[in-house]
Amino acid sequence: EILDVPLEQDYFGEEKELKSEIKDIKFENLSFHYDDSPELILKNINLNVKAGEVIALVGKSGSGKTTLVNLIPRFYEVTEGAIKVNGIDIKNISLKKYRDYIGIVPQESFLFSGSISENIAFGKNGVTEDEIINAAKMANAYDFIMELPNKFETEVGERGVLLSGGQKQRIAIARALIQNPEIMILDEATSSIDTRTEAIVQKGMDALMEGRTVFVIAHRLSTVRNSDVIMVLEQGHIIERGTHEMLIEEKGKYYQLYTGAFELE
Hints:
Layout: E1 24-32, E2 42-50, E3 54-58, H1 65-71, E4 80-85, E5 88-89, H2 95-99, E6 102-105, H3 116-121, H4 129-138, H5 142-146, H6 165-179, E7 183-187, H7 195-209, E8 213-217, E9 229-234, E10 237-242, H8 244-250, H9 253-258
Parallel strand pairs: 3-8, 3-9, 6-7, 7-8
Antiparallel strand pairs: 1-2, 1-4, 4-5, 9-10
Helix pairs in contact: 4-6, 6-7
């Protein structure tokens, strides 16, 4: 089945290049459904994100949060409308070149069998030892690595089984930092760890978000208070948008979520 999956199309139409730093990302009348169902998962999404902004996506499970962030790196192609970066439709940009601008820290970090050093450097050519050490320090991972028997050469085991959940997340954050991407996608990278570890990982997350355009899916609402814009999704629609203070004042869906009337999943 895997061999039969069609290859991703590098670009559509005439290839265009991003010739400068990312200035803005626009979602224009964006709708999406999966190939195996005509039901729209996202419906007429319009959003204008300026470089350096942190956009938090909140909503119940199934509201479309993960689907929306999966469209940014073109894991799926938009059904209707467009996502544009610096005014260029991302379908017209070479996938390989475009994805170099994007870093992702998923909810469940995937580590490969190999050393910590190899896992941090994964995906980038010509990484120096200093770059690996600096990324580990920024991700708040350096101290625990230096306590391990073989330090940066310690084997992590298949899928990172020899490390704790919090340690794996910090390695994943260091891996994203070393890529130095302009766009970061965080699928609530602290949701599967305990509160004490979360505080340590959060410091690494803060370093990762500094000066980048960030899309964060939030399962714990405490992580979104300082976002520039909070988007509340429900059944594929953006039903509320604004800062934490604005949305609390409106006493709508976000207020209900934040005050615990509903549980986020």
